[in-house]
């Protein structure tokens, strides 16, 4: 039964793809596309889901898919319209189907009437009866039992064991039509099968056989008369001819009389009869000879087919195989270890004398290049288009439109953008919440929209794109935007910003991501269930990403997530403070500089700022933050690494030294130790030391008190978007 | 030499199930995921029995069967259709194209092998 478990695994993987596919096709229909291929593809998707479901005995799923399929079948044959309401019904049916698949996957039993209403609507549409359909579904299940004992009984084999059954004589007259041969059935095979049911007497009637010159190669001129002494049921006998019933004249006559006596004599007779059968039978032989005779033309034909296939193969998407994720993870881990080993090797070589180094240098450099390529190749195995998670959002928007009484359309762009699978998996929750937020707080009701001179239907836009080695995913809506006055008021009330602070518009917008910003008075059915924007913020930060908000009051708001393409490695700058090494992700670094003494200004509150090109940036002393000793005295003798943060303007991190730029393997601190604020993870350096990877936003938050709108990552509470 | 069976189905679940069942029964199995692929596999590797799904992208089972039958080499090769419908219409459709017989999905291993032995003992 291990096979079965494995099949199930494959099946559910396949279902996921099929459901996403179905969703896509149905959305296309909804958008008014009318290509027949859309309906065919949708039909195939459901058909495959049903096929597998049958094999595993997911009765509810089969029943539902069956009706769904019937409706689509009628649509593709243009017997049913693909009008708006019909398509809307299909889309809802797709959602129910997805639920049923999930239930089957989790071994859950849904109530019998799950999706009943929809099922009835589908029946109505298909013009089928619900009761009849259920019977039909039951029919299907009689055959289900992969690997179990055969209960079908439609075939002959299991009749043999039925010793107690009454022996009787059956007369059969069988005259094949030429079609029987065209479909590659063979009377000789039927005859043998018949023989297996009991003792068989055979008579050939060749009276229809014309003169030799009139014989057509693929004609059929013989009639056989069989006398079968058997205990097999009529059904079993008929079963022998199951595939040829339409291609022959068949008479089965039952004589209940027990005819035991003929057994002995019939055996030789049968052989006699069987002998001439083979040569006379106008079975496929003539055709085969013709084929051999015309092998030149056949070869030519084959060549042509091969050529045709080649052109098709060119057009096909590249071949792919399915690999267990675990194996890939193992590969990724190994490559990670390899990167560390390589770094160690380089480190050790650098300690050799110059002459010794020279002989090794070339090899080591090549190794580094190849290592990088290997790593990128391995990472790209895990890369997947964001489509799988994006396509799930369509349903969400649909359901929310209903429950919120709003009209909304989801527009998706960049769904083919690829990103690491783990990132994709982690994306679902934050995206769901951001879309909920946009639907709930961002979009106005249709009436409000009309009043504001907007189209009744709001637009939620979901986009993904690669930017600077990161993936940027944004959720925007053309709703009312963020009410900054209200946000600022709330933030001040809650003590999240000082009363005299004059934050910029952007800063105000980002205030809503602050912990503790959540407000009870705006908890709504949809997005105020205790999991607020904190889920989004925390999750994104855990992934080493950032979140930002921009908004135009009355027009739009946009949430942007910036995420690393992979969670396994990053390009980092190794910096040192005292004797400790830290990694700053390269993608966060804007520039590094040695500040002039006069450019550093102390603030009254205790902080420091750096004057740079006419502006000021805040300085953060990592040594102070982490309780470390600097190597030398004053800030001006150190370096400032200017980094971007998600929540505010760039900040400057004060460090002792920039050591080296290096690709590092990310080891989770959380799974090996515990979460530490300001630290995104750890890595192992070439010299074998462990270095911490800095979480720039976290660091920024740790030094927050001096600044009004800093994000405290530690204790995020539900923060809802206030609009 | 064991008999070679070409299975043509766009569903991996179904292909895998056929593969395991047929291999266990001692058949040599060649897989294809649509009709077009089936034709190239047929040209490359040949087959003693062909099992094909009907609903497939690129080239469906009906077109595939017709294309097989149009080749002299496969005019008399048993072709079985895989059909979830026990409906006669689907069987008839396959037969009209030249299918030898049919296998009703879901199948159990014994009945699958029996059907194959029925057309190719």
Write a compact overview of the structure shown.
The complex is a heterodimer of chains A (723) and B (121). With 723 residues, chain A is of the alpha+beta class. Helices cover 45% and strands 20% of the residues of chain A.
Which regions of chain B are unreliable across 5 or more consecutive residues at pLDDT < 50?
none
What is the CATH superfamily label of chain B?
A: Response regulator
CATH topology of chain B: Rossmann fold
Order of helices and strands of chain B: EHEHEHEHEH
Shape label of chain A: elongated
Largest sheet of chain B: 5 strands, parallel
Largest sheet of chain A: 6 strands, mixed
Rg over C-alpha atoms of chain A, rounded to the nearest angstrom: 37 Å
The shape of chain B, in one word, is: globular
How much helical structure, as a percent, in the residues of chain B?
A: 40-55%
Low-confidence region ranges of chain A: 131-164, 257-315, 519-531, 706-723
- Give the full name of the CATH homologous superfamily of the largest domain in chain A: Histidine kinase-like ATPase, C-terminal domain
Number of helices of chain A: 23
Q: Can you list the strand order of the major beta sheet of chain B?
A: 2-1-3-4-5
Rg measurement of chain B, Å: 13 Å
Q: N- to C-terminal separation of chain B? A: 13 Å
Question: What is the oligomeric state here?
Answer: heterodimer
């Amino acid at each position: 039964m291990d096979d079965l478990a494995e099949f199930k695994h494959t099946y559910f993987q396949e279902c996921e793809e099929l459901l996403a596919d179905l969703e896509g096709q149905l959305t296309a229909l909804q958008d008014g596309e009318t290509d027949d291929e859309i309906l065919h593809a949708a039909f195939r998707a459901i058909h495959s889901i049903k096929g597998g479901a049958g094999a595993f005995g997911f009765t509810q799923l089969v029943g539902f898919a069956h009706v769904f399929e019937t409706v689509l079948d009628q649509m593709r044959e243009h017997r049913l319209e693909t009008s708006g309401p019909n398509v809307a019904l299909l889309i809802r049916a797709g959602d129910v189907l997805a639920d049923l698949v999930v239930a089957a996957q989790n071994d859950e039993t849904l109530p019998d009437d799950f999706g009943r209403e929809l099922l009835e609507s589908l029946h109505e549409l298909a013009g089928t009866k619900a009761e009849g359909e259920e019977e039909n579904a039951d029919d299907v299940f009689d055959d289900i039992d992969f690997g179990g004992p055969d209960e079908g009984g439609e075939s002959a084999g299991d009749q043999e064991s039925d010793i107690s059954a009454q022996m009787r004589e059956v007369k059969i007259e069988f005259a094949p039509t030429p079609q029987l041969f065209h479909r590659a059935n063979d009377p000789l095979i039927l005859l043998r099968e018949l023989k297996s049911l009991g003792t068989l007497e055979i008579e050939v009637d060749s009276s229809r056989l014309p003169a030799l010159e009139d014989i057509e190669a693929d004609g059929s001129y013989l009639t056989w008369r069989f006398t079968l002494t058997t205990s097999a049921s009529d059904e079993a006998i008929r079963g022998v001819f199951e595939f040829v019933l339409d291609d022959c004249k068949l008479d089965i006559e039952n004589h209940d009389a027990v005819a035991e006596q003929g057994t002995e004599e019939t055996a030789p007779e049968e052989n006699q009869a069987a002998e001439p059968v083979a040569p006379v039978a106008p079975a496929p032989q003539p055709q085969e000879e013709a084929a051999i005779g015309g092998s030149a033309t056949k070869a030519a034909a084959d060549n042509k087919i091969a050529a045709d296939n080649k052109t098709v193969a060119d057009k096909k998407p590249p071949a792919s195989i399915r690999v267990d994720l675990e194996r890939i993870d193992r590969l990724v881990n190994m490559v990670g270890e390899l990167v560390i080993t390589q770094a160690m090797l380089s480190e050790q070589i650098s300690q050799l004398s110059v002459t010794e180094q020279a002989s090794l240098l070339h090899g080591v450099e090549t190794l580094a290049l190849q290592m990088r390529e290997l790593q990128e190749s391995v990472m790209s195995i895990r890369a997947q288009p964001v489509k799988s998670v994006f396509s799930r959002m369509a349903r969400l928007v649909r359901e929310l439109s209903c429950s919120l009484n709003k009209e909304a359309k989801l527009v998706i762009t960049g769904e083919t953008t690829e990103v690491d699978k783990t990132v994709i998996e982690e994306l679902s929750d934050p995206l769901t919440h951001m879309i909920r937020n946009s639907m709930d707080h961002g979009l106005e009701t249709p009436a409000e929209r009309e009043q504001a001179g907007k189209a009744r239907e709001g637009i939620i836009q979901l986009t993904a794109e690669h930017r600077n080695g990161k993936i940027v995913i944004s959720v925007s809506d053309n709703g009312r935007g963020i009410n900054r006055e209200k946000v600022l008021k709330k933030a001040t009330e809650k003590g999240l910003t000082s009363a005299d602070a004059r934050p910029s518009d952007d800063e105000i917008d980002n205030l809503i991501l602050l912990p503790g910003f959540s407000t009870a008075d705006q908890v709504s059915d949809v997005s105020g269930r205790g999991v607020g924007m904190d889920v989004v913020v925390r999750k994104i930060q855990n992934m080493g990403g950032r979140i930002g908000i921009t908004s135009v009051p009355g027009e739009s708001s946009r949430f942007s997530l910036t995420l690393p393409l992979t969670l396994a490695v990053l390009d980092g700058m190794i910096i040192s403070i005292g004797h400790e090494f830290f990694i700053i992700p390269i993608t966060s670094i804007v520039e590094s500089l040695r500040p002039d003494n006069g450019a550093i200004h102390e603030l009254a509150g205790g902080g420091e700022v750096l004057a740079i090109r006419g502006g000021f940036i805040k300085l953060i002393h990592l040594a102070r933050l982490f309780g470390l000793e600097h190597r030398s005295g004053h800030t001006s003798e150190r370096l400032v690494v200017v980094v971007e943060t998600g929540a505010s303007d760039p900040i400057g991190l004060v460090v002792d030294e920039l050591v080296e730029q290096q690709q590092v393997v990310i080891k989770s601190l959380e799974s090996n130790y515990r979460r530490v604020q300001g630290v995104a993870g750890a890595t192992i350096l070439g010299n074998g030391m462990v270095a911490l990877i800095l979480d720039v936003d976290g660091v920024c938050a740790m030094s927050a008190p001096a600044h009004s709108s800093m994000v405290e990552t530690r204790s995020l509470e539900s923060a809802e978007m206030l609009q | 030499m064991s008999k070679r069976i070409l299975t043509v189905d766009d569903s991996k679940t179904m292909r895998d199930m056929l593969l395991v069942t047929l291999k266990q029964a001692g058949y040599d199995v060649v897989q294809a995921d649509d009709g077009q692929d089936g034709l190239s596999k047929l040209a490359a590797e040949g087959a003693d029995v062909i099992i094909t799904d009907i609903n497939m992208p690129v080239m469906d089972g009906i077109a595939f069967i017709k294309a097989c039958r149009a080749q002299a080499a496969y005019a008399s090769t048993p072709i079985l259709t895989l059909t979830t419908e026990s409906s006669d219409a689907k069987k008839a459709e396959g037969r009209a194209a030249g299918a030898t017989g049919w296998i009703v999905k879901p199948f159990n291993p014994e009945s699958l092998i029996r059907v194959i032995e029925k057309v190719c003992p």
